[in-house]
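Repro:
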Amino acid sequence: MQLKRSLLACLVMVSSLAFASFAAALSGSWAATVGIWPGLGVVAVQSPSELILTYTVGDWSFSSDTQFDVAGWTSQEFKADGSISALAIDSVLTFDPAHAAFSNWRVTGTLSVAGATLGGRLTVWANGTWFDTWISSTTGPVSVSAYLYLGEGGGCSLSFYSASLVVGFPLSCAAVQSIVSFHSQGLDYAQFEASDIAIPNLPWLSFDALLVLKPSQKAFELAPVLNFGTTDCITVYISGAGLGSLSPAPLTAASLSLDGFGLQCTIGDVEFSELSYFGTGTKPGILKNTWYQEACQIKAKSETCCGPIELDAAVYCLPDGTFPWSIMPSGTGLFGVDEIRAEASVAAGKRLTISLTVDVLPVWAPVLMSWEIGFKVVW
């Protein structure tokens, strides 16, 4: 409780001082959203809000980032960044007001001298300390970077965790990068990557190659890259990989697979996108950070199209109809559509933006899953 009072007092004092004495140097924003989820069977209301205040003095800026919701004060972050000659410093102090606890303190410094950049970062947690440092330099087409990581100790103790050396250089028709990494037990891995390997007389086709060597295993990946130019709107995602151990089996040949394809085109000031992706790993484009496998999107962000209104509407599909949430029903909606999401925002002057988001799940009834109304004020 005492920590909560201290944090609130610091926030009020900084804000009041900035407003009262240094208003000309104060900037910030206040964003809030009210959301209702009737699709859950009850009218659940949430109202996340974020207040950012930034005070600038010369080359230094000091800011406070405060977040609230209906339950109260949820997050507090204080940040300071600036420079002293060639030394750039960034410091971030984070608290957890909900539990009246210190979260972490991170201080980063970088120094550029004679074509080389030296950096260091100290991170202090409630139960340990982490420190990493690096140096990088570029001479012509060759770049060299070295990294050292210390940490995992209790209190302020530091122990060696890992180190790595990264070298990049051009080689004939490809760009090559090598990484050698060590940990506390010895060699971790060696990685060699070549990108944009050109194919004679086929300017639209190139390859990326990756070789990873570990003490008891090696892996090889060869991925073709299709480039039909910036005016074409078709993207094809193809992956391939080969895997074998150092002993006794030799490295197996790579196998190619079609992971997906996308279509994108612009008509006037309206952008249309379609993406189908069935591969593993991180999904690209409009499917990134979603569990869906197909999506269509229409975006308009130009005053010549819709005045001061920005529009973004998307339709998502999950062919097998299996949601990761246990509360969600299985099966797909009409025409295989599982979610429809539409967002609109309008600029009401130079400092105020009002937004509306509507989310519908046709597979569930169909019903209105959620709607959100928000605003953002900047100064």
